[in-house]
């Protein structure tokens, strides 16, 4: 195919211009802005359609309102001279085509004439522009395969003709925008049937409205169930808070306390060691003083003698005061905790409960009963619906019988009006004319009145049908009543089994799952508390036994001290006061100092002072003023540690239950309100479930009446037809794809020929400066070097060689002229001359149109005796 003439009405800067082209080689010369590129864009637009407007890029739409478009005359080897006309404002921008034999057509005929040429091939293969010669990524082996297939160079004509036939076949079955194709029509018919089904469903007593209502009721049931579940979970949380309130109150008290240790563990050990050594020195001094007192012989009273004789026992008891005080405090704390008795069922005291492991076990226990209750509720709703239908049928039958009493009274009243009409009509024949007409009018009036008063005879078939329908409903009522009774029995059996399981576990009877979950949680808490109480009782017993032993150690003091009816703490205080009095007596007495004893006492005091000085910094750090304060300090530290441990236990076990600080009264109030909300929510949920089941049953009955069966059957048949046509369409398209794959395989066989031809053209363009083009790992190489290492002009020549190689493979059936728009900007004078010679040679099989502003190329064309014509250009 080659271009013979271009007639431009208006396109870009051109107005009413005609261009004639040679069938071989030609150079269209023009300076910049002369309109060379506009001429190229016109040819492309007439062949393939007008370009869309873009924000970036040149717009060729005329501003003066003249006709945007023109004509193009081409010479085709099959169709001869073809005239193509295209205007933007006419025929929606579609082309009009005229053939030599007078045949006319539009876009479809143009595509058939140009096939397989399309706009992409026109741009990528048959037109040469400078920017295209720099797109080296298209020279990969994979892209070259795709280009061979697009050109249709890789197989025989039969292969491509078969592909065309297959394409026509599957497009004859279905086209995305088609109307006459069988699959398109089948889809339209199927959609129309679906629409009719929807309309029919909408007509049948508000079917769709009922479906939407049922869906809305289902959503309401789901939302109400979730709301009830949230309320129950909140109630369970509050129940746990109420049961653990004592621990939470203790937790709050401990949080308010200052539980920071004044001394580290190491400092406490140092302080303990210091106090023991200090006490030992103190005891040693006391012994030395006792020896010195005995030596002096000053003994005043029997009480003092008693003290001296039992000084060791008394001091030992006083030394254990801290330990005894700790035991007393612990015993008192345990007694307070044991006195706090939670309210528990009486039977748990004799027979402890055996709670479930978790809520899943409870859910599994209730699952059969809940399923049976749901089934029973559905059966009850069905029974009520059937009874309502039975009552309506009975009312309809009674109304029909009242309207037609002749069904039961076979005696008929004589038709007096008809008899009178007959008698008047007979008498009219025997009376004169004036009276005759009166009798005839009276006969007509009696006849009309008789007809109006005549009752329509009863339809026994309708009556029998109503009786039969009532019998059917009565049978359904009896059947559903029996099912409901059996369902109630089954539900009662499952309920008895569940209650038996609860009794075996010694849990209270409950009718719902949530109550069992609460009782189970209460039982688990009770067992935990029971275990804790047992441990505390054992500890209390051990403490009391130990304290009784300690009280027995005070018996030797009964005659000398007023210990009767005093507790252990008071006895210790009395003994401590007695020891202080005796010490005062000891130090108040006058005695003669023994040199050795005085020296030992002095040494002991000196050691005691040194010990005190060594630990003075520790005592000052811990703010202990006197050594006698050490036991109380250590007691406080020990209590702080115990409280810290208790606080950690309560933080892990109780604190997570209380996200916000609250009071027991608030918890009780919220629980009372929640209980009311839960009861109201359960009633609301039951009503919603019943309404939803009623709607679902009505939908089932409406679907089962058979009114839509015919339409459903037609839709099924139409769907089968659509599936068959779809299968045929898919098979033809798949076969076409297989042929495409075969063409791909053939293109791989033809690629070496393309490479050979490209090498030949490349050698001609470079004047044999390079010898070989090849592929390495799918990428093109020149003399085994990457094309990216070449100069810009050489890269352009590589691209040009491949473009001409494509065209050479198609030279027996040229699809389109070769159009080159200044594709040699990077060439030197020698390369330009070689390129001009190549175009002269190549134009023997192709029409070549060069668009250039290069004066040097003009001289080469003239030297080779090739046609050159200048493009002057026009102003807008």
UniProtKB/TrEMBL annotation:
Keyword annotations of the record: Coiled coil
Coiled coil start-end: 183-234, 264-295, 369-403, 533-625, 657-705
SUPFAM superfamilies: P-loop containing nucleoside triphosphate hydrolases
Pfam short name (any one): AAA_27
Gene3D superfamilies, per the entry: P-loop containing nucleotide triphosphate hydrolases
Lineage top rank: taxon: Bacteria
Domain (YhaN AAA): residue spans on this chain: 1-204
Identification of the protein by name: AAA family ATPase
Organism this protein belongs to: Enterococcus hulanensis
């Amino acid at each position: 195919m080659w271009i013979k003439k271009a007639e431009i009405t208006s396109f870009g800067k051109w107005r009413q211009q005609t261009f004639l082209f040679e069938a071989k080689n030609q150079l269209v010369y023009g300076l910049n802005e002369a309109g060379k590129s506009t001429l190229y864009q016109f040819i492309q637009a007439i062949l393939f359609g007008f370009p869309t407007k873009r924000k970036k890029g040149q717009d060729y739409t005329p501003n003066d309102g003249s006709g945007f478009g023109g004509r193009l005359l081409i010479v085709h080897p099959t169709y001869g001279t073809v005239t193509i006309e295209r205007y933007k404002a006419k025929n929606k921008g579609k082309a009009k085509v005229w053939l030599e034999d007078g045949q006319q057509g539009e876009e479809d005929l143009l595509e058939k004439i140009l096939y397989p040429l399309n706009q992409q091939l026109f741009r990528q293969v048959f037109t040469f522009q400078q920017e295209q010669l720099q797109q080296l990524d298209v020279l990969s082996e994979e892209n070259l395969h795709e280009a061979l297939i697009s050109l249709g160079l890789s197989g025989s004509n039969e292969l491509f003709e078969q592909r065309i036939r297959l394409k026509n076949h599957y497009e004859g079955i279905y086209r995305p925008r088609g109307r006459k194709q069988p699959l398109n029509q089948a889809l339209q018919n199927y959609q129309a049937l679906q629409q009719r089904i929807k309309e029919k469903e909408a007509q049948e007593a508000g079917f769709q409205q009922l479906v939407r209502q049922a869906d809305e009721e289902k959503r309401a049931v789901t939302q109400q169930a979730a709301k009830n579940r949230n309320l129950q979970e909140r109630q369970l949380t509050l129940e746990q808070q109420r049961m653990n309130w004592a621990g939470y109150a203790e937790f709050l008290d401990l949080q308010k306390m200052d539980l920071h240790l004044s001394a580290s563990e190491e400092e406490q050990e140092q302080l303990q060691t210091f106090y023991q050594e200090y006490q030992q020195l103190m005891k040693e001094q006391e012994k030395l003083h006792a020896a010195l007192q005995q030596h002096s012989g000053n003994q005043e009273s029997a009480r003092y003698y008693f003290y001296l004789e039992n000084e060791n026992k008394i001091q030992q008891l006083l030394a254990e005061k801290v330990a005894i005080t700790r035991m007393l405090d612990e015993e008192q704390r345990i007694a307070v905790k044991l006195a706090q008795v939670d309210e528990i069922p009486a039977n748990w005291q004799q027979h402890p409960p055996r709670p479930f492991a978790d809520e899943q076990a409870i859910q599994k226990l209730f699952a059969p009963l809940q399923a049976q209750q749901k089934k029973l509720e559905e059966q009850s709703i069905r029974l009520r619906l059937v009874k309502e239908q039975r009552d309506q049928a009975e009312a309809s039958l009674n109304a029909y019988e009242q309207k037609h009493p002749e069904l039961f009274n076979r005696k008929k009243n004589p038709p007096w009006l008809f008899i009178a009409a007959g008698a008047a009509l007979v008498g009219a024949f025997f009376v004169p004319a004036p009276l005759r007409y009166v009798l005839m009018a009276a006969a007509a009036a009696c006849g009309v009145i008789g007809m109006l008063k005549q009752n329509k005879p009863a339809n026994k078939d309708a009556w029998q049908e109503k009786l039969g329908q009532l019998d059917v409903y009565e049978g359904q009522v009896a059947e559903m009543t029996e099912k409901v009774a059996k369902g109630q029995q089954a539900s009662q059996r499952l309920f008895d089994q569940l209650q038996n399981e609860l009794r075996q576990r010694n849990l209270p009877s409950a009718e719902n799952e949530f109550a069992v979950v609460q009782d189970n949680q209460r039982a688990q808490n009770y067992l935990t508390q029971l275990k804790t109480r047992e441990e505390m009782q054992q500890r209390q017993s051990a403490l009391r036994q130990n304290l009784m032993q300690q009280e027995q150690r005070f018996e030797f003091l009964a005659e000398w001290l007023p210990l009767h009816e005093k507790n252990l703490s008071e006895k210790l205080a009395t003994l401590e006061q007695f020891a202080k009095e005796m010490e005062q007596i000891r130090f108040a007495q006058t005695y003669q100092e023994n040199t050795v004893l005085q020296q030992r006492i002095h040494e002991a005091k000196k050691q005691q002072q040194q010990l005190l000085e060594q630990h003075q910094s520790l005592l000052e750090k811990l703010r202990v003023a006197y050594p006698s304060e050490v036991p109380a300090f250590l007691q406080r530290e020990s209590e702080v540690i115990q409280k810290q441990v208790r606080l950690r236990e309560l933080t892990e076990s109780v604190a997570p239950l209380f996200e916000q600080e609250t009071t027991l009264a608030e918890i009780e109030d919220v629980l009372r309100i929640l209980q009311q909300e839960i009861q109201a929510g359960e009633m609301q949920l039951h009503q919603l479930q019943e309404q939803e089941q009623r709607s679902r049953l009505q939908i089932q009955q409406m679907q089962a009446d058979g009114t839509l069966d015919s339409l459903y059957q037609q839709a099924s048949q139409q769907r089968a037809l659509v599936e068959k046509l779809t299968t045929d369409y898919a098979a033809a398209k798949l076969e076409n794809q297989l042929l495409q794959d075969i063409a791909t395989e053939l293109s791989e066989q033809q690629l070496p020929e393309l490479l050979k031809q490209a090498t030949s053209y490349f050698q001609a363009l470079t004047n044999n400066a390079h010898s070989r083009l090849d592929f390495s790992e799918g990428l093109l190489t020149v003399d085994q070097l990457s094309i990216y290492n070449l100069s810009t002009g050489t890269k352009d020549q590589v691209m040009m060689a491949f473009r001409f190689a494509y065209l050479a493979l198609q030279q027996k059936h040229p699809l389109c002229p070769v159009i080159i728009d200044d594709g040699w900007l990077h060439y030197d004078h020698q390369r330009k001359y070689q390129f001009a010679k190549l175009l002269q040679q190549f134009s023997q099989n192709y029409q070549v149109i060069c668009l250039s502003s290069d004066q040097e190329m003009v001289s080469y064309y003239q030297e080779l005796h090739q046609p050159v014509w200048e493009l002057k250009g026009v102003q807008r």
